[in-house]
Amino acid sequence: MAFFLETLLGGLMAGMLYSLVALGFVLIFKASGVFNFAQGAMVLFGALSMARFSEWIPLWTGVDSLWLANVLAFVMAAVVMFMVAWAVEYLVLRHLVNQEGATLLMATLGIAYFLEGLGQALFGSSIYKIDIGMPKDPVFILENLFPGGVLVNKEDLYAALIAAAMVTLLSLFFQKTATGRALRAVADDHQAAQSIGIPLNRIWMIVWCVAGVVALVAGMIWGSKLGVQFSLATVALRALPVVILGGLTSVPGAIIGGLIIGVGEKLSEVYLGGFVGGGIEIWFAYVLALGFLLIRPQGLFGEKIIDRV
Amino acid sequence: MSKKIGDVILDVHNISLRFGGVKALTDISFDVREHEVRAIIGPNGAGKSSMLNCINGVYTPQEGSITFRGQSFDHMNSRQVAEMGIARTFQNLALFKGMSVIDNIMSGRNLKIKSNLLMQALRWGPAQREEEEHREKVEHIIDFLEIQAFRKTPVGQLPYGLQKRVDLGRALAMEPQVLLLDEPMAGMNMEEKQDMCRFILDVNDEFGTTVVLIEHDMGVVMDISDRVVVLDYGKKIGDGSPEEVRNNEEVISAYLGTSH
Lengths: 309, 260
Hints:
The complex is a heterodimer.
Chain A: H1 2-32, H2 39-61, H3 66-92, H4 101-123, E1 138-141, E2 150-153, H5 154-176, H6 178-188, H7 190-195, H8 200-226, H9 232-235, H10 240-246, H11 251-271, H12 273-276, H13 280-295
Antiparallel strand pairs in A: 1-2
Helix pairs in contact in A: 1-5, 1-6, 1-8, 1-11, 2-3, 2-4, 2-8, 3-8, 5-6, 5-8, 10-11, 10-13, 11-13
Chain B: E1 8-19, E2 22-33, E3 37-41, H1 48-55, E4 63-68, E5 71-72, H2 78-84, E6 86-88, H3 101-107, H4 117-121, H5 125-144, H6 160-172, E7 178-182, H7 190-207, E8 210-215, H8 218-224, E9 227-232, E10 235-240, H9 242-246, H10 249-256
Parallel strand pairs in B: 3-8, 3-9, 6-7, 7-8
Antiparallel strand pairs in B: 1-2, 1-4, 4-5, 9-10
Helix pairs in contact in B: 3-6
């Protein structure tokens, strides 16, 4: 039982991170109908700028507090992500309004490669580390319930908490503020939103900025766990099955989809791995997503696709 | 009726609109006076919705001009038109389906909101107070449209007639000078139609809002309009008081298909 709980908790914590990246996809898709293939590149770009700024800032300013340097680096990286969001919206997407979905997808694919290249040109292409003071040691909980307790990785726990806080903040922003309301309005109906005076371009800009910050946070957490390297861009693509599972148009779907995939990966690895060989973790999410595409293509919470004939 | 009809507020002058080779509107002129209820009627395909979409900035006519309060708009999009004080409702409901009735109508206050993103996010005092003021106005509209019971319901779940009211409510929340209604009575039963007529007249009376409305059901329109424009095949075939229009030979033949 304790072992099962351990696996489950590990899965939930990993899932929280998937949710965070999936949220980036969902935000942009809902507001502008663009499936943003560059989300992964944005994670890498965010992580790279965070890693390098936290290295450079002590050199430039002589700040020797790790905490302060990290905060400053985060702010700088956020500014960089805002600039990326602005450039993408202003230079690319604004000119492709009302184009086919495939055109927009190709455009974001282009943006993805461009960002990967630009990131390495600006920040270098070695492996960097992000040290945000995450504790690496495990802790044991519920020791009086189970013999030996349940082992929890502190680093995972902190990462999950940060991701959860981020998701909560975003939901509050969407539900409780006037701008959040305008964002939801645009997501539901572009034309109606324009007719009541909501400026689409401004809303799209805000959404890309938010997605940029989400990517930065995800990149920061993953970077601190795995190191900042090129493969971070592909790790983000593991959030793809999450959006298929949860539905491309649903924020709660992204969160729950992420948790399901996280837990599913860990449980299947542990309990099925013995029968079908290891490495389930790598393909489990995709197979689950494939199953969903066959049975429920709109995902768990997505809008049902109804075509009028 | 004792209401005062003012000067011309919206002037449509020689508008022509083409989609490729199809002439949707040909040389249409009419004006709308302040505080009146002005109807645009015509059989299906007469160009009524195209006309409304020109006034709303969705389409840009190839010829002619539209002047609102002396300001002409040639290349405006619907957002800029909204900023000038023209609100609209939609024929095929374009509500924000996932949002509650309150949020839908609140979103109509968008242009009136002064506080910026940061102030809202931090729930800064003034931003909160502003939100409450807007909420009060919205409550007033909800009372007015008699939809108090559905405040928190996602509009997608409401019956059609009520969704039409929410659509009207969202437009009213903009406190527009001119309200464009695209077939507000379409698909309604008699009772719902009567309710909607009452709301339109009340809006016109209480807030003094100028109403431009499109209908193809002649009966309802005649009762509530001050003046009526009749379109057929993209051309204007009649313009005047309901009485005049009703007796206009061309209008009768367009609607009944009688031959001369």
